[in-house]
Write a structure and sequence with these properties.
alpha/beta, globular, 11-stranded mixed β-sheet, Amidase signature (AS) enzymes, binds glutamine
Length: about 475
């Protein structure tokens, strides 16, 4: 039987009971990558050799009396902005094309400690700036459900690889929707944890007050298992929270009786595809049938979220990307006549157009005459947006919305209009601004067969409640079982 469509928990049973080996599984995943990559191009780097060595080590572990982890022997892909010791980490940017980190990100180290097999690095929008993976300096990734469409972004490679069974699970990063939006477009599960829940050490920074690492998986149980491996305090990240992490997978089995679901009016608006609205309303109805109680909540500052985000995120990006000057990392333009020209040419030729646009916007927002009008004001609005969620979560346990206003759009459809592209994150961005956790999961398909995503938001550090609600809904539906024909 072909193991690549299976989930972590299903494969764990097989590995534990010696029905298969990690070497066999890893080989099959590598075969699958070879067969689908020409169509989807989800990977930047496939680490065949080290993956086979890790699979071998996992098999020894599985044979030994030492207790194994649910991830032991499971092939996992990583977004190419997570530092991997000895393995190229490019952020899909020319400026880091040949950058080989000397250390592993904390999440990578934790995956390795649980015996996972790192199968490769996935394509993304350059420096995670984008919603379609079209901003990669190294080519497009296609959506496995329709190769003429984008997979979402910026973690588009991770989501496409999971959807196409070209890995068993993946990690992504989410600054304004980059895990949830591609998960929605590719029909898989993506969780952005609370800011501070997962260590950002070794994640190449885009906007440090918004960035979080999370998983993209085939179902909710796998999402909980990934959280069990990666969540928790890390002294290398001063923003990681020093509070205990629950056993997420064990907490899953809870019914929806009495769960209070908030429906924010501001997320059910004109401009959203009617098929998306219909699927989300049906999902809410299904949750009510399972015992949940719904009520309307107001998130009144939602209309300012995109503007606020594009001031804060660009300001932080402008600062974070100052380090790519041709001196310390990766690419250096040459020949140049002096230092200033070297800096300028390196950045002119090393960064793509969207990254340059963000640096210019951020520099403008922080410049002395405009600081109060833009950056300071955006920080004030951030507090108001956070306040909306605090109020809403006094009345409800989770909030349910669409993940994105449309299903996957066509390649090239929005590349000429950055504002249209920015608006595809209209439902995901507030979550990062407020720092709360949110998950996207499949809740239906369009008539043309494209997946639709449901978003479930929770209180800070209440990933458990989000996962429980998602799991109960998933158990009552079949959406997660559909596979693209690729
Ligand atoms: N699409 C948003 C942006 O372009 C969010 C990206 C992200 O979450 N990394 O900034």
């Amino acid at each position: 039987m072909n193991p690549t469509p299976l989930t972590i928990h299903e494969l764990h049973e097989q590995l534990k009971n010696h029905k298969t080996t990690s070497r066999e599984l890893t080989r099959r995943v590598l075969d699958r990558i070879r067969s689908v990559e020409p169509k989807i191009h989800a990977y930047r780097t496939v680490t065949e050799e080290s993956a086979m060595a890790q699979a071998e080590a996992a098999d020894q572990w599985l044979q030994s009396p030492r207790p194994v982890h649910p991830l032991t022997g499971i092939p996992i892909a990583l977004k190419d902005n997570l530092c991997t010791k000895g393995i190229r980490t490019t952020c899909s940017s020319k400026i880091l094309e040949n950058f080989i980190p000397p250390y592993d990100a904390t999440v990578v180290q934790r995956l390795k400690e649980s015996g996972a097999v790192i199968i490769g690095k996935t394509n993304m929008d350059e420096f995670a700036m984008g919603s379609s993976t079209e901003n990669s300096a190294f080519g497009l990734t296609a959506n496995p459900w329709d190769v003429n469409r984008i997979p979402g972004g910026s973690s588009g490679g991770s989501a496409a690889a999971v959807a196409a069974d070209a890995c068993i699970a993946a990690l992504g990063s989410d600054t304004g929707g980059s895990i949830r939006q591609p998960a929605a477009m590719c029909g898989v599960v993506g969780l952005k944890p609370t800011y501070g829940r997962v260590s950002r050490y070794g994640l190449v920074a885009f906007a440090s007050s918004l960035d979080q690492i999370g998983s993209i998986t085939k179902d909710v149980t796998d999402c909980a298992l990934m959280m069990d491996a990666i969540a928790g305090h890390d002294s290398y990240d001063s923003t990681s929270a020093d509070i205990p992490t629950p056993d997420y997978a064990r907490a899953l089995n809870r019914n929806l009786n009495g769960l209070r679901i908030g429906i924010p009016r501001e997320y059910f608006i004109d401009g959203t595809d009617p098929e998306v609205l219909h699927a989300v309303r049906e999902a809410i109805h299904a949750m009510e049938k399972l015992g949940a109680k719904t009520r309307e909540v107001r998130l009144t500052h939602t209309e300012y979220a995109v503007a606020t985000y594009y001031i804060l995120a660009t300001a932080e990006a402008g600062s974070n990307l100052a380090r790519y000057d041709g001196v310390k990392y990766g690419y250096r333009a040459k020949p140049t006549k002096d230092l200033l020209e070297m800096y300028m040419k390196t950045r002119q030729t090393g960064f793509g157009p969207e990254v340059k646009r963000r640096i210019m916007l951020g520099t403008y927002a922080l410049s002395s005459g405009y600081y109060d009008a833009y950056y300071r004001k955006a920080q004030c609005v951030r507090t108001l947006i956070k306040g909306d969620f605090d109020e809403a979560f006094k009345q409800v346990d989770v909030i349910v919305t669409p993940t994105a206003p449309t299903a996957a759009f066509k390649i090239g459809e929005k590349t000429q209009d950055p504002l249209q592209m920015y608006l595809s994150d209209i439902f995901t961005i507030s979550v990062n601004i407020a720092g709360i956790p949110a998950l996207s999961m499949p809740c239906g398909f369009t008539k043309t067969g494209l997946p639709i995503g449901l978003q479930i938001m929770g209180r800070p550090f209440a990933e458990e409640a989000v996962l429980q609600a998602a799991y109960a809904y998933e158990q009552a539906t079949e959406w997660h079982k559909r596979k693209p024909n690729i």
